[in-house]
Amino acid sequence: xxxxxxxxxxxxxxxxxxxxxxxxxxxxxxxxxxxxxxxxxxxxxxxxxxxxxxxxxxxxxxxxxxxxxxxxxxxxxxxxxxxxxxxxxxxxxxxxxxxxxxxxxxxxxxxxxxxxxxxxxxxxxxxxxxxxxxxxxxxxxxxxxxxxxxxxxxxxxxxxxxxxxxxxxxxxxxxxxxxxxxxxxxxxxxxxxxxxxxxxxxxxxxxxxxxxxxxxxxxxxxxxxxxxxxxxxxxxxxxxxxxxxxxxxxxxxxxxxxxxxxxxxxxxxxxxxxxxxxxxxxxxxxxxxxxxxxxxxxxxxxxxxxxxxxxxxxxxxxxxxxxxxxxxxxxxxxxxxxxxxxxxxxxxxxxxxxxxxxxxxxxxxxxxxxxxxxxxxxxxxx
Length: 382
Known about the structure:
Layout: H1 16-32, H2 45-60, H3 72-81, H4 85-110, H5 116-125, H6 127-132, H7 139-154, H8 158-169, H9 179-188, H10 193-210, H11 212-218, H12 232-242, H13 246-258, H14 267-285, H15 297-307, H16 310-322, E1 326-329, E2 338-341, H17 343-381
Antiparallel strand pairs: 1-2
């Protein structure tokens, strides 16, 4: 007798939510006390910038953006936790990441998406989410507030959706682009112009309030960005190891050619496509680390599920999750295919080797520098 898997279990309801919580926390616990990040990439310096901003605000009552254009909510929140070191800030990210996972599960319920249990598990354990849910960075915070904005919009609470979106913007300014798909959804639901204007007004004024520390200190000068140079090889490797590996890409490509089923007049499909295209265009314009694509991940999973047969969805989801444990390197020297440790395992080893020492060294140097600065200022004032 063939074994049938029930892939439509609601993992956000008791008792399944408890099982999901236990597995989620157990998979993150080994990473939480391994420093603020791995520090194996030049872009990991962003983490130190966040730490610097939080440290200055907590101990010296000086607000400075971690990096332009600023993440005021995330910076202010971390200033409350930085006294507990990386264990406190990483744990906060993990907790909020689980909140994002549950929100995605609720969204799958509202949109009546099939295969929702495997989609939710894949979302929780795709390497780019797994890794970034245990470090002191704003990617998962921005995603959590974005998912809250969509959840509230789907529930018809548009003003609250605008407030949630403003918090996402105050974590990552690029979240502002999600105004467009949210407006699309509201128009599909015939919300009415008054409610649309109310949503836009709420989003605008809430964002201004949250960005008031940045505006007060920098004026409109905060609207700048200093991109880092990154090679195509780095972009490709990050995408292939943390989002879609080569086997999954091949399966999706072949299935798209021979087995796709593009829904017609499906608002959920169109919304998901809209979000994925927006972030894909941003990424193509300025390719960088895979974490920049995190806001598109949940909607990419919805697209996958609506476009391909169930077995293809299962196969791709399994490959995506396994990508964190093992990686098929098709460019291994002298070999056609080389089996390597997955990105999650590598991140764990890198953080054990580098994360703790570099995090502590930075905190010590920051403390020494700021004490010397304060001593100098006291001497001058005398």
